[in-house]
Amino acid sequence: MPDTARSKAKVAIFISGTGTNMAALLYASRLAQAPFEIVLVASNRETASGLSFAQLEGVPTFVHSHKGHTRAEHDAAMEAAAHEAGAQYIVLAGYMRILSEAFVERWAGRILNIHPSLLPKYKGLDTYSRAIEAGDAHAGASVHLVTPELDAGEVLAQARVAIAPEDTPETLAARVKVAEHQLFPRAVADYVSRGNDPDHLYTRVADLALALPEAHAKDSHGSPGFRVGPVKSGKFFAHFSQQHHGSEHIAVLVKTGGMEELLDLVEAQPEVYFKPAYYGASGWIGLILNRPDVDWGHVAQWLERSWRSVAPARLTRLLDAADQF
Ligand code: GAR
Which SS3 state, helix, strand or coil, does residue 135 take? Predict the structure, then answer.
C-alpha cells in the first residue's frame, strides 16, 4: 500500500512542563510521510508552558489539575479527553505523574514514555546526577513502553550522550534533551508503523506458529511457511504472504474447511479475510495482518485450527491433553 493511502496513527501527548519533546514530536508529525499525527496535548498543570505552544500550533489541548482529585479520578479525566480526541496511542513527554495500574493496563502496548537515562539504569528521578556520580562514560535517554512498574517496560530505542568531566546535571541535561528530540519522534514513528512492517508481522506469526508441537519453519515457492511433523516430510499448516501476486495484503494463509466456508468468511468480513491467489483454490484463506487492531488471539486460534487439520493424531492428542490444564 503506498504510504499516502495509510491513515496516520492518532497520538495524544501528556505533558507536565515545558514540552520541548512534545514540540519535537509535533514538528516531526508534520513532515511529509510522518506515520502519526498529534490529536491532543493534555496536561495536569495549567501552567505547563507546552500548552500555549500547542495552542499556537493549532493542536487541541486539555488541562485537568491533579490537585484535589484521587489518582483514579484524575486519570479518568485525562483518559476521557484522549478518547474524545480519537487517540489510538498515548505518549508521555515529561508527564510527571504516575498513572494508575488500571489505566496503564487499558492502554497496554499503546503508551510510550521517554526517560532521561539508559534504562535499566537510573529509573525514577535525578538521573543526570546519578550518572555523573557513578562516573559513567555515557548518559542518555530511553523510549519505552509503559507498564505498571515504573520505567520498567520494554525499551524500544535509546540514544547515548557522552558525559564530559566538567558536566553538571544541568549541562548534561541540556545535551540529553537534544538527543531526546532526535530519538523520540523516530521511536514513535517506528512503533506505530510496526503493524505495516513485514519483518515485525512475520516475527509475531512465527512466535505463535512455532509454539505449536513439532512445528518448524520452511520456505515454499520462495515464501516463508510453517510445517508440522518431521523436518523432511512435514505438512504445511501456514504460509506467510507478503504482498504476493499483486495483493496489497501482508497475511498469514491458513486452511479452512473448504471453499464454502472460505467464501462465506470473505464475504462477511472482507477487512479481515481474503481469498489468496493460487492457494485460495485449495481452501487456504488469507488473514490480513497489515490492518489496525489485529486480534492476535484470533490469529493464534486459526493457526492452531490449521495445524490440527494436518497434524498427526499423536500430536493433536498431545495438544488436547495440554488444553485440559
Ligand atoms: C525530558 O527530559 C524527559 O526525559 C523527562 O522530562 C523531560 C521533559 O522535558 N521525563 C522524565 O523524567 C520522566 N520520568 P520537556 O518537557 O522539555 O519535553
Answer: coil
Average pLDDT, the chain: 93
Q: For the chain, what are the domain ranges?
A: 9-193, 198-323
Ligand 1 atom 1: the closest Cα is on which residue? 94
Query: Under a CB-based contact definition with an 8 Å cutoff, are residues 138 and 118 in contact?
Result: yes
Lining ligand 1 with CB less than 6 A are 15, 17-22, 93-94, 114-116, 141, 177, 180
CA of 94 to the centre of ligand 1 (A): 4
C-alpha cell at 231: 523436518
Residues found in the chain: 325
Kind of pairing between the strands at 89-92 and 9-15? parallel
Amino acid at 154: E
- At 256, list the grid cell: 479452512
Write the CATH number of the domain with boundaries 9-193: 3.40.50.170
CA distance 197 to 199: 6
Architecture of domain 198-323: Alpha-Beta Complex (3.90)
d(CA 193, CA 40): 20
Q: Report which of residues 89 and 243 the model is more confident about.
A: 89
Q: pLDDT per residue over 56-80, tens digit each?
A: 999 999 999 888 888 899 999 999 9
